Amino acid sequence: MKVFLINEPFVKNFNRSQRWAARTRGRVLRAPDWLAYGTAVLEQEGITAKLFDFPAENLQKDDLRLLVKNGQPDFIVLDSTTPSIFSDIECARICKEVSDAKILMVGPHCSALPEETLLLSNGAVDVICIGEYDLTIRDVIANYPILDDIAGICYLKDGTPQRTEKRQLIQDLDSLPFPAWHQLDLMKYFDGLKLHPYIDIFSGRGCPHTCIFCLWPEVMHGHQVRLRLPEKVVDEIEHDIEICPQVVKGGEFFFEDDTFTINKANAMAICEEILRRKLKITFSVNARTDTGDKELFQILKKAGCRELLVGFESGSDDMLATMNKRESVANARHFMSLAHKTGLDVHGCFVLGLPGETRDSINTTLDFACNLGLHSVQFSAAVPFPGTQFFQICKDNGLLQATSWDQWLTDGEQSAVIEYPGLSSQFIQESTDRGLKKFYFRPSYILKFLLSARSKTDLYCKLRGAKNFLSYLVSQKNS
């Protein structure tokens, strides 16, 4: 049996594996980590599984047609996102035209809207694997065409979408094999704000918080926090170093957990295990402002942590409450004070345009972000993705301007698909760019940014990211 798992093509520089699928302003290219997990699970079962990342290889739909025609797999697993869903279904149709493969679709869009996606595909997609799909694809492939007893899927039965019982979240994450990074060239992935190369790693899944705009906990991995054993996490780090030794020669690991610092004891145990094994690595982690802790920050720094990536989201307590962030501006200031004292850099993420936003609150957030002492920032216009509370709020209140999923992008760029009375989508979009210019175009910042390069490859990535960002700004000015 042969299975192809494909991160399929879409518009140039589209990054489907990030939390908000779009073309980032810095043209980030992230590895398809969840498909890599799925590939490894199939390999563990003795199934011939091949992982193909079309964006990383700069391949197009004609290449997809040729690959499938020549390879003739029995099953194909395709990813899905909201902006790309029509293109994703087209890719499924291409695969059907040149092979007898059964098509499984995974990812956030089809997980949020499985019945609609099946009907849209008009026979091009055979099975939707809903949510956390590592084991679901294995079960479908092992039992096809007998599907009734497989939890967590949606398929057509007598022409009607049939959804099976909900699949329980994977409790023992350490039972999963390490992602199939050996099938990818990890040097091809790029993020101008990370060291190069960087490798994603997960010490846990799930987030207990219910921010109204957050897609992955709501649709893919749930709100139950499940943690891996620290020893297994560090085993994976050592395994990854064998696959990509360049990661310890100027690169870094990135802990993509929703919040690496959510469980202090586990985070500290991972750091202690890194130190016990005398690993000389650099890493960065996702964190929340209410997890600021001196003892934790100190051991993070000692173990090799470079940067904390934090969803500050807003400089307004009212907006933080409205988005159900369960944090405060005071939390943010305390967090930054501890990070500075420990010598940890902080990357701040901010979202503009959630319900309740005003021009004043946006300007407050921009000023707040530029005066926190951050190492880098990211401003995003709020995008309502199906499956989130934010999407439902926008739908119920007639705020959605888009009438078709392909309008979630315009010429490949993230679209402002909502509009509020007194706050236009244009102002929200312009504010994100204004905030970025205000932060990054300070002469002192530009000099510090370039001087902080740790190697020639790191300097190259910083310059490449800056060039991509400037290209984005020029394209917006001319549009």
UniProtKB/TrEMBL annotation:
<dbReference type="GO" id="GO:0046872">
    <property type="term" value="F:metal ion binding"/>
</dbReference>
<dbReference type="InterPro" id="IPR007197">
    <property type="entry name" value="rSAM"/>
</dbReference>
<feature type="domain" description="B12-binding">
    <location>
        <begin position="16"/>
        <end position="151"/>
    </location>
</feature>
<dbReference type="InterPro" id="IPR006638">
    <property type="entry name" value="Elp3/MiaA/NifB-like_rSAM"/>
</dbReference>
<dbReference type="Pfam" id="PF04055">
    <property type="entry name" value="Radical_SAM"/>
</dbReference>
<protein>
    <submittedName>
        <fullName>Fe-S oxidoreductase</fullName>
    </submittedName>
</protein>
<dbReference type="InterPro" id="IPR058240">
    <property type="entry name" value="rSAM_sf"/>
</dbReference>
<dbReference type="GO" id="GO:0051539">
    <property type="term" value="F:4 iron, 4 sulfur cluster binding"/>
</dbReference>
<dbReference type="GO" id="GO:0005829">
    <property type="term" value="C:cytosol"/>
</dbReference>
<feature type="domain" description="Radical SAM core">
    <location>
        <begin position="193"/>
        <end position="430"/>
    </location>
</feature>
<dbReference type="GO" id="GO:0003824">
    <property type="term" value="F:catalytic activity"/>
</dbReference>
<dbReference type="InterPro" id="IPR051198">
    <property type="entry name" value="BchE-like"/>
</dbReference>
<keyword id="KW-0411">Iron-sulfur</keyword>
<dbReference type="InterPro" id="IPR023404">
    <property type="entry name" value="rSAM_horseshoe"/>
</dbReference>
<keyword id="KW-0408">Iron</keyword>
<dbReference type="InterPro" id="IPR006158">
    <property type="entry name" value="Cobalamin-bd"/>
</dbReference>
<keyword id="KW-0949">S-adenosyl-L-methionine</keyword>
<dbReference type="GO" id="GO:0031419">
    <property type="term" value="F:cobalamin binding"/>
</dbReference>
<dbReference type="InterPro" id="IPR034466">
    <property type="entry name" value="Methyltransferase_Class_B"/>
</dbReference>
<keyword id="KW-0479">Metal-binding</keyword>
